Amino acid sequence: MDYTISLILTLLVSLTDADKPPNILFIVADDLGYNDVGYNNEDLITPNIDKLAREGVILDQSYVQPVCSPSRNSFLSGYFPFKTGLQHLVIIPTQPACLPLNLTLLPQKLQELGYATHAVGKWHLGFCNWKCTPTHRGFDTFYGYYNAMEDYYNHSIASLLDPSDVGLDLRDNEEPVWSANGTYSTYLFADRVTDIIAKHNKSKPLYLYLPFQSVHIPIQVPEHYEKMYPNIKSEGRRKYCGMVSAMDEAIGNITAVLKARGLYENTLIVFTTDNGGWTTEFGNNYPLRGGKVTIWEGGTRGVAFVHGPMLNKTGYRNNGLMHAVDWFPTLLHLAGGKVTDPIDGVNLWDMISSGMESKRTEFVYNLDDKIPPMEGHAAIRVGDYKLIDGYPGAYSGWYPPPEAKTHGPYNKEVTLAEGLTEMFLGKKQLFNIKDDPNERNDLSKEMPDKVKQLEERMDYYRKQMVPAIWPPSDSKSEPHNWGGVWTPGWC
Q: Crossing angle of helices 185-199/235-260, nearest 10°?
């Protein structure tokens, strides 16, 4: 009799746990290249990332935008950037601009479902008005920075209007953090995340958005991580790889705390980059073509994986097509919510969790009619085919890493002037990405009907494009006006 009661209680507890909405840890690496993780490149030391990826599902056709702000727009809003005005470069510190306030973001939807929501790390979606900032856009707490390119130790960044005007950019909710000067940001963010996990009320599901500073410039890392790569002769590449390993260690520490708190078994971990590696700043995407600030595959086909016990099929590479906008409806579905706005994202949970065919058949890499479109003018993928219209971005070659055992073919990169000439001539390039993922064989002359088909589809999306949000800089933004801190309140 006692055994029967015990069995019933155990089953009831199991059913209750199964019915709980999952915790979600969404990790974004900044400027991490396709070839900059151990599971794609054996020279990189990333044991924690590799273990999570191999135990989960590696998403091998997970696409992001060519640069930072547009990808974060997509993760959190579910809209392509050309529909929100964030298709042109990134939001710079002195611009009175932010992700449009009429959009409902994923953390706001999750709050409605009872989630505790926290953001730790990089925002980069605008801060000129307090309403633009994380704690006004669905996050219960925020610990991080508003801009990009901060120093990893003193957490400050100079004004583009006056390089001598250097301001602190680190916040605990809305308060400036002066006490962290000298502490490496990867440590700071990992410590805050582990503290949030340790103090989390387990009666509520947890959504933790963790956009690391790593591995964006400046290239800075504690020396012992750099020393992990003695065989890499390039100092910049050696430090960059050390930055990757420092981030990997932080992820290992975070997962350990999830386990210690009993949250790991009901947590979906998502890992993605925001764009490809920056080839001039030691990032690497080989054998893919190009890199950050381009609409080549190297700039947009991102490193990504998922891990969690709610996945039905694991331990493989999934080649289903997905885009950054798809995380919004997919995670909302997993949390028990429904999409109510006409977003671009598609719920791909069946693909991610069970290996079923992707419901996404096409997407736009970018549409930017502002001259010059530095991150690439226009490109679209429909099925296996990709059409590039005009300027693809400044880095158009194939760049093996300096540590590579075999270098293979290395093509001359297209210069900025050459690329702009291509743009003004209206050059079209067509690739079969399934058969030619490294974009070496332009099929545009052989398949004019396919070019026309994709041009017509691009025109369909172009009619939905809104003008790029790209206002001139405002001197009211500068930190000397705000006690030496980058501060909202000037737009």
A: 10
Show the CA angle centred on residue 382, arms to residues 380 and 385, nearest 5°: 85
Ramachandran quadrant class, 418 (left: phi over 0; alpha: psi -120 to 50; beta: rest) = alpha
Q: How far is CA 323 from CA 47, 242, 333, 369, in A?
A: 26, 29, 16, 21
Candidates 68, 98, 128, 132; catalytic one: 68
CB atoms within 10 A of CB 174: 13
Q: What is the DSSP letter of 485?
A: B
pLDDT-derived band at 6 (thresholds 50, 70, 90) equals very low
Cα(59)–Cα(305) distance, integer angstroms: 5
| pTM assigned to the model | 0.94
Each residue's pLDDT tens digit, 301-318: 999 999 999 999 999 999
Please indicate whether residue 224 is annotated as part of the active site: no
Residue 329 near residue 347, CB atoms below 8 Å: yes
Residues in Cβ contact with 33 at an 8 Å cutoff, skipping those fewer than 6 apart: 273, 276, 277, 278, 283, 284, 285, 291, 298, 303
Above pLDDT 70, what percent of the chain? 92
Please state, in angstroms and rounded to a whole number, the distance separating the CA atoms of residues 115 and 247: 26
**Measured distance CA(135)–CA(488) in Å, rounded:** 13
Nearest to 160 by CA among 231, 83, 89, 80: 89
Judge whether 180 and 188 are in contact, CB under 8 Å: yes
Contact call for residues 56 and 239 (beta carbons, < 8 A): no
Contact 438, 395 (CB under 8 A): no
The catalytic residue among 88, 124, 200, 377 is 124
Rounded Cα distance, 321 and 63, in Å: 8
Whether residue 68 lies in the annotated active site: yes
CA distance 86 to 433: 26
Tens-place pLDDT, residues 159-185: 999 999 999 999 999 999 999 999 999
Q: How far are the Cα atoms of 180, 194, 257 from residue 191, in angstroms, in the given order?
A: 12, 5, 10
Q: Rounded mean pLDDT of the chain?
A: 93
pLDDT of 369 reads 86
Residue 332 Cα distances to 98, 182, 210, angstroms: 23, 38, 17
